[in-house]
């Protein structure tokens, strides 16, 4: 006897398995997106929009992949090193989501720290930025969260984080000011208290690439 026909399985969503991944509720996002499309006067059943709710759900899973993770885990592995001058990684690109409008803000983060007997792998600084960015955010919180993590986990004598970014909610809607740039900084330890250290690190961050 032929097997009873099974209900068609849904195509599994593609999520980049290598990327940090937050378990979002795909079905709820899909139905909400469908609702929004209808509310703006669109027909969610027209050909071009049929897969849009799924796509948006996948996009949110990706954009909010850092929501529940601890970005500080990237700073757990350190190397003992007798180096106590500035370590700076400049121009770490990132893309985050403004929590007010759920529109992207994109830019660069510059991270410097003064080690105290231990250094961290350089890529880990970029991993921290990447993960803190993948949450509904404001730029100020992104900036000081990264600074606090580095200060705490590395026991750094000084930390400087400077973030520059363009907010889509200011460029494509509302006040509509393309080209406007938002700069934020968080200074900790010697970079906060010692004007010479602060001037030195800001000089390195602002130095034009050769
Ligand atoms: N401080 C801060 N503000 C942000 C950030 N991203 C977006 N905003 C601002 O959040 C504010 C939200 O203001 P509201 O008055 O509640 O919203 P709105 O009516 O859409 O504001 P407009 O953008 O002025 O049209 C806006 O001024 C945005 O520019 C951020 O990272 N930090
Ligand atoms: Zn916004």
Automatic annotation (TrEMBL):
Entry keyword annotation includes Cell inner membrane: no
Xref: SUPFAM superfamilies: Tetrahydrobiopterin biosynthesis enzymes-like
Enzyme class: hydrolase
UniProt catalytic activity: GTP + H2O = 7,8-dihydroneopterin 3'-triphosphate + formate + H(+)
Enzyme nomenclature, EC number: 3.5.4.16
Entry keywords, A to Z: GTP-binding, Hydrolase, Metal-binding, Nucleotide-binding, One-carbon metabolism, Zinc
GO molecular function annotations of the record: GTP binding; GTP cyclohydrolase I activity; zinc ion binding
InterPro entries: GTP-CH-I_C/QueF, GTP-CH-I_N, GTP_CycHdrlase_I, GTP_CycHdrlase_I_CS, GTP_CycHdrlase_I_dom
Pfam families given in the database record: GTP_cyclohydroI
Regions that span the bilayer: none
Domain GTP cyclohydrolase I: 29-205
Pathway field: Cofactor biosynthesis; 7,8-dihydroneopterin triphosphate biosynthesis; 7,8-dihydroneopterin triphosphate from GTP: step 1/1
GO cellular component: cytoplasm
Binding site for Zn(2+): 98, 101, 169
GO BP, sorted A to Z: one-carbon metabolic process; tetrahydrobiopterin biosynthetic process; tetrahydrofolate biosynthetic process
Similarity comment: family membership: Belongs to the GTP cyclohydrolase I family.
Subunit structure: Toroid-shaped homodecamer, composed of two pentamers of five dimers. Homopolymer.
Record-linked PANTHER family: GTP CYCLOHYDROLASE 1 (PTHR11109:SF7), GTP CYCLOHYDROLASE I (PTHR11109)
Name of the protein in its database record: GTP cyclohydrolase 1
């Amino acid at each position: 006897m032929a097997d009873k026909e099974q209900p068609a399985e849904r195509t599994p969503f593609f999520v980049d398995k290598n990327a940090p991944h937050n378990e979002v509720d795909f079905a709820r996002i899909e139905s909400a997106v469908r609702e929004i499309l209808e509310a703006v006067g669109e027909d969610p059943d027209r050909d071009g929009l049929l897969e849009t709710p799924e796509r948006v759900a996948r996009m949110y899973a990706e954009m909010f992949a850092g929501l529940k993770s601890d970005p500080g885990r990237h700073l757990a592995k350190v190397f003992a090193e007798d180096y106590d001058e500035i370590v700076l990684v400049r121009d770490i690109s990132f893309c985050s989501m403004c929590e007010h409008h759920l529109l992207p803000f994109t830019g660069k983060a510059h991270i410097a720290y003064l080690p105290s007997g231990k250094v961290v792998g350089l890529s880990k600084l970029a991993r921290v930025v990447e993960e803190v960015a993948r949450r509904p955010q404001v730029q100020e919180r992104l900036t000081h969260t990264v600074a606090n993590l580095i200060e705490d986990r590395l026991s750094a004598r000084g930390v400087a984080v400077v973030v520059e970014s363009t907010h889509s909610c200011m460029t494509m809607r509302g006040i509509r000011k393309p080209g406007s740039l938002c700069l934020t900084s968080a200074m900790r330890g010697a970079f906060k208290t010692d004007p010479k250290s602060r001037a030195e690190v800001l000089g390195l961050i602002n130095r034009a690439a050769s």
